[in-house]
Amino acid sequence: MENIATADVAFQADGGNLEELFVNAAKATMAVMADLKTIKSTVEFKFQISQEKLEDLLFDFLSELIFLKDKQSVLFSKFDIQIHYDTAQYHSKGYKLEATVWGEVIDPNRHRLRSDVKAVTWHLFKVEKKNQGYQAQVILDI
Amino acid sequence: MSIAKGTMESKSFLKKISEVIWEIPSSYKAGMRVPARIIATEKLLSGMEEGVFEQITNVACLPGIVRYAFCMPDGHWGYGFPIGGVAAFDLEEGIISPGGIGFDINCGMRLMTTNLTVKEVLPHLPKLVDLLFSRVPSGVGSRGFLKLNRKELEEVMVEGASWCLKHGFAQELDLENIEEQGKIAGADPLKVSQKAKERGIAQLGTLGSGNHYLEVQKVAQIFDPSAALRLGVNSVDQITIMIHCGSRGLGHQVGTDYLRSFEGVMAKYEISVPDRQLVCAPFSSPEGKNYYAAMAAAANCAFANRQIITHRVRECFSQIFGKKPEELGMNLVYDVCHNIAKVEDHRWQKEDGQWQTGKLLVHRKGATRSFPDQPAIIGGSMETGSYLLMGTETALEVTFGSTAHGSGRTMSRTQAKKQIRGKELEEKMRQEGIYVRTASYSGLAEEAGVAYKNIAEVVEAVELAGLSRKIASFTPIGNIKG
Asked: Which of B4, B275, B299, B348 has the fewest CB atoms found within 10 Å of its own CB?
């Protein structure tokens, strides 16, 4: 999206369901940093996130990918996401996300690298239910 | 919030105070505690996005803000604060806001001199830049050559550039020429999350990406020969080096962590803000103090980062030219922060005309300190060049001792990439005499000169406002970017 962020990058992601939305948002985030076609699936990471609100869930999910990118020096191209909503009174109510993500240790000689992402921002951050599923709008700090 | 530029007619809410000072009165928007002031020529002002005015007037709503919310001439739209935003807060009544510092805590600029000339360097330039590109990692996920353990990282967080001196990455004189001697007091590694430490531990000595760079430059013009000479800039065509980078993943994670945690904190202190990205905490609160301690830790890592890169640059020049760095006159002119909050002594005139002195917490986001007789560095695009300036007494009076930091963008990264091809730009720059190495051609396109405002106009504006005066200008001949 070219007209809403001058110094940084904005994207819109869609999904027929929540999992698809999250996968597409993850891909969009990674695509800012590299051509995903050049990233193989040689390393795997798993993590869980719990949040009451959907916006917070997506924010923390994308932030976790950005954290792993720097900690492990990896980029991800394949994602398997499971999200369910827990309404139980005695557990913490809210969304539970389980992610398995695959990617590769960054190799500047093989990977077509683009811009590093510093952080997800709250600016104009949106997750909305649409007729055919969900849509998210995210601005990333470059 | 719009990045549309609008026209001067659509900016009729601005009151002209002088040729380069414009005011938005506090009556403009409900909640404004002080007016906003924009330092800019009419031309720069007319090119500013409308979102900048929205953001700076939001900043004017923050509790404990003193006198004005400022925007520098290179101002453009950011998160919470505009980039180019300056705001000072009372230490007891005021807040600290991560959006007023930025994710890249202590992103800053460093300038070094050499005793080499363009003529001496040109025959070796490709080899020199290639060597710098290999010794100063840049780009997504780059890792530094320095392998630190957890304890050493914590030492860096507390000691900043002093740590580098202890470990052979600095000369004594270097520390005298860094803002705060390269070490902000009050840093506490315990206030930096495990995640931030994990994110940053392998990144010391790396450049990062985006608009960060390492430039080999030549002196283009000297405006004040005696001041320039005192700073080691003695002739046109002298070779200098400029470094622009920050605190890398550690700083970015500190920003993310505290932006997240402050959301829950504001309700506790009954603070509401017009923009979610302006989340803040009272500076006097435990939460506010924790963030300041973490910010200082990240800032010290950035000072250390630029110092380690300096060391690598000295090594590379030494290798190519077969002389020690001292023999090449590789001295640090100055190192400034442009994303930071500092506790500083100031004197200001209140609304009732009475003068007051005291300590204030000054947020500078995409703005540079410009104290009297302190060098300031304003970086332009990689095609156009940069400036060395000197701070002034007027800056203390007008903007709490602050000036611009760069030239600011005119178009989004996406727009730039649509218009420009990285490889073609690299070739164009080569033909213009600038040898570039980049980790990303699309990233290069995003940084094209046409995507940035004219640096000369920004510098003219700060000079007209009396905030800083030109000492010398530099143009790049070699550039490394991530």
From this structure: B4
- Residue labelled with tokens 């990062």: B208
Amino acid at B471: I
- In the stretch 53-82 of chain B, residues with CB closer than 8 A to chain A read 76-79
First to last CA, chain B: 30
- The residue whose two tokens read 């597409």 is A24
Among B447, B456, B407, smallest CA distance to B426 is for B447
Name the E strands within A69-132. Answer: 74-86, 94-105, 119-130
ipTM, two decimals: 0.94
Nearest residue, CB atoms, A70 vs list B79, B141, B412:
B141
Contact state of B202 with A73 under an 8 Å Cβ cutoff:
yes
- Are B368 and B391 in contact by the 8 Å Cβ rule? The answer is no
Q: How far apart are CA B392 and CA B470, in angstroms?
A: 11
> A90 at the B interface (CB within 8 A)?
no
Distances (CA, A) of B370 to A122, B31, B260, B373, B421: 31, 30, 31, 8, 37
Annotated active-site residue B311? The verdict is no
How far B34 CA lies from chain A's nearest CA (Å)? 24
Does A51 contact chain B (CB < 8 Å)?
Answer: no
Residue A110 forms contact with B (CB below 8 Å): no
Q: What is the pLDDT of residues B413-457, one digit of tens each?
A: 777 777 788 888 888 888 888 898 988 887 787 777 777 778 999
C-alpha distances in angstroms, A136 versus A6, A112, B6?
19, 26, 28
pTM of the model: 0.96
Query: Pick from A33, A15, A12, A31: which is nearest to A23 by CA?
Result: A15
Nearest to B121, CA basis, from B47, B218, B48, B215: B218
Report the distance separating Cα B214 and Cα B245, nearest Å: 8
B451, two tokens: 């995507």
- The structure tokens listed for B153 are 């990282």
Q: What is the DSSP letter of A91?
A: S
In sign, the C-alpha dihedral spanning A11, A14, A20, A22 is positive
Residue B143, Cα to own-chain centre: how many angstroms?
22
